[in-house]
Design goal:
The protein is an alpha/beta fold. It has one domain. It is built from 11 helices and 9 strands. A 7-stranded mixed β-sheet has the order 1-9-8-2-5-3-4, sandwiched between helices. A hairpin with a 2-residue loop joins strand 6 and strand 7.
Length: 311
């Protein structure tokens, strides 16, 4: 990566913020994240409207109230939860294996470990809660994984986040595009392939029904499963308290018919349905809602669900 004057300044600022946040006690660090999340909520009206529209769609599909006090509370909580995610990304590399083990409550730790050790597993998650502790947990238990990731700009920010996310663990690898060959090699060598599949960020997608409305989601997990026969496991971590997460895993059952195109479409829908069920447990922790998800909810066509400004 070439060194740019602006990039050097950004890198220095990120390193300084990293050091300062790392010095804070956990309670103070979370309090700071919450404060920044609330400020972000207050002073980002366009993003606030997008999050409100996306979360309203989620809670409408689950039969809950879609306007008023409940929606406003969820949107505010979403900004706080997203700020907490970034805080945790910065602080997690400072934690050892014992810390990570204490952070997680796994619904079936032995089953997950046995499945991963069997090799060639496709792990699907969402931009929900915080999957970083799970990535570190897998690596620390000797379970190798590979994750295709979106390359973001500027490159200094991408390098900073990549070094501090699960890729900082021995045994984990985040692969920017093009990643197809590395992913197939990983499955052949008995490694887990981890993919976030709640919104299309890598450009290979299929239209499904997502919370009752058409949306495009990644077709990579289903395509890999159809081509290789690898099992698909949906897993998420839901934040229950500062530095505490509840894991949920679901093996996605499917039976191939021999029609690869139909199998891929059906499995993509099945994976999406399971992810939606996970997200519905705590919609405010779905930070996928901070980006466009449904084609009809574009920035120029967002409903004004928080008519009083959301304050």
């Amino acid at each position: 990566m070439s060194l740019r004057p602006g990039g050097l300044v950004l890198r220095a600022g990120l390193e300084l913020s990293d050091a300062l946040v790392g010095l804070l006690p956990s309670r103070a660090a979370y309090a700071l994240a919450d404060l920044l999340g609330l400020a972000w909520y207050r002073f980002a009206p366009a993003r606030r409207r997008l999050v409100a529209a996306n979360l309203a769609r989620v809670i409408a599909a689950t039969g809950r109230q879609v306007s008023g006090t409940e929606l406003r509370r969820l949107v505010r909580a979403a900004f706080v939860a997203h700020a907490r995610y970034y805080l945790e990304v910065v602080r997690l590399p400072r934690h050892g294996r014992r810390d990570i083990d204490k952070m997680l409550v796994l619904d079936d730790a032995a089953g997950v470990e046995a499945l991963a050790k069997a090799g060639g597993v496709i792990g699907v998650s969402a931009h929900f809660g915080n999957f970083e502790p799970a990535a570190i947990w897998l690596a620390s238990h000797g379970l190798r994984w590979v994750a295709p990731v979106e390359r973001i700009e500027p490159p200094e920010l991408f390098a900073y986040l990549r070094a501090r996310r699960g890729a900082g663990s021995v045994g984990g690898e985040m692969v920017p595009p093009p990643s197809g060959r590395r992913v197939l090699d990983a499955l052949r060598h008995g490694e887990m392939v981890a993919i976030a599949a709640d919104r299309d960020v890598l450009g290979s997608s299929h239209e499904v029904s997502f919370f009752g409305h058409p949306a495009r989601v990644p077709d990579g997990p289903a395509t890999l499963a159809v081509l290789t026969g690898a099992p698909v496991v949906v897993g998420t971590l839901r934040r229950t308290a500062p530095n505490r997460f509840a894991a949920r895993t679901d093996l996605v059952a499917w039976t191939p018919t021999g029609n690869r195109r139909a199998d891929m479409a059906a499995l993509t829908q099945r994976i999406t349905d399971v992810l939606a069920d996970h997200i519905a447990q705590a919609p405010e922790q779905w930070w996928g809602a901070f980006q466009p998800v449904w084609a009809d909810l574009t920035p120029d066509r967002l409903p004004d669900l928080l008519a009083d400004g959301g304050r």
